Amino acid sequence: MILMDNRHAHITDSFRSLRIGIYGAGSMAEAIIRGLTEKRLIAPDRIAVVNRSNTERLEELQRRYGVAADNSPQGKVQLLQAADIVLIAVKPKDAAGALAELKTCLRPGALLLSVVAGLSIATMQRIAGPVPVVRTMPNTSSSIGLGATGVCWSDETTVDQQEAALHLLQAVGYATVVAEHDLNMITGLSGSGPAYVYYLMEAMIAAGIDGGLSAEQARELTVQTVRGAAEMVRLTGEEPGELRRKVTSPGGTTAAAIETLEQYQFQQALRSAIHRAEARAQEMGEQIGRVTF
Ligand SMILES: NC(=O)c1ccc[n+]([C@@H]2O[C@H](COP(=O)([O-])OP(=O)(O)OC[C@H]3O[C@@H](n4cnc5c(N)ncnc54)[C@H](OP(=O)(O)O)[C@@H]3O)[C@@H](O)[C@H]2O)c1
Asked: Separation of 139 CA from ligand 1 center, angstroms?
């Protein structure tokens, strides 16, 4: 226990001494900046953020979180060259160009950490060189500290870099280490996952309104139901199937609803949707991999 506490204290202290450069100042970048600064894992002035062209956005992040920013060509290079970890947070279509630009700005030994969907370690290293790389797949709930992220790394990463990457991602929620080939599955499951739950909630709210509830009542009852169900699974540690069976009495209302869902093959539809998203992540990754530099 004491050994673990010492290790944790070491990770926390060494993380505070790092400099983090963030390449691409969009919503994922902001989620990570918010997580790191709200949890006081690192001083805001040790985080630097750069963009392609949107300087107003950089000023906004500077004002809101106290991070460093400079979008002049020289200033950008200086901020990135000072970074121990460079987080690449641009859209997949911009990733190859961004990596080619980064190749000339990374200082030796710096860690490249990507949140870009589909961008493989091999593609990053083909463009940016044989640098240590961490590839991740987060989701939008990271913006409220409840993200679910899959992480893998290249052989060049040190144990300290792996721990620093996990520490950074855990600032915005749950993070788990997987083999790279599992990241497409994670994209289908938790990366796109919030949208499936929103889709389910849309249907629940619509049914409530159809049944005569006000829009506000239908919305609040749905939100609380989804929140409560997720928390029940988390807090009790019971399997969702077990919890479902416990609330389903034979011949009752829930049984009637589940029978209807089964007629529509609800579970099969959802599983097919997740596997389709997984396959799409694979296709998108292959597209990025075909870009030549
Ligand atoms: N949002 C999510 O929940 C989520 C979840 C999982 C994974 N991701 C991944 O996170 C990445 C970023 O997503 P996002 O939603 O944060 O995107 P976003 O809000 O569109 O932001 C992208 C940012 O990248 C900047 N950029 C583009 N090309 C650049 C370049 N060459 N050099 C420097 N900056 C550049 C853009 O700057 P300008 O405005 O100046 O062009 C913009 O600020 C994506 O690859 C996505 O796959 C996002």
From this structure: 13
**pLDDT of 39 over the 80 cut:** yes
Please indicate whether residue 191, judged by its CB atom, sits closer than 6 Å to ligand 1. yes
Query: How many A from CA of 24 to the centre of ligand 1?
Result: 5
| CA-to-CA dists, residue 65 to 43, 55, 69, 86, 161, angstroms | 10, 15, 11, 18, 24
How far is the C-alpha of 26 from the C-alpha of 98, rounded, in Å?
Answer: 14
Give the domain ranges of the chain: 13-183, 192-277
Verify whether ligand 1 is closer than 6 Å to residue 275 (CB atom): no
Binding residues: 89-92
Q: How far is the CA of 166 from the centre of ligand 1 (A)?
A: 21
Condensed to tens digits (0 to 9), the pLDDT of residues 105-164 reads: 999 999 999 999 889 999 999 999 999 999 999 998 998 999 999 999 999 999 999 999
CATH classification of 192-277, choosing from 3.20.20.140, 1.10.3730.10, 2.40.50.100, 3.40.47.40?
1.10.3730.10
Contacts of 148 (CB under 8 A, 6+ apart): 138, 139, 141, 173, 174, 190, 193
pLDDT for 92 equals 87
Rounded to two decimals, what is the model's pTM? 0.90
CA of 217 to the centre of ligand 1 (A): 36
Q: pLDDT, tens digit, for every residue of 256-291? A: 999 999 999 999 999 999 999 999 988 888 887 777
For the CA of 90, the closest atom of ligand 1 is 24
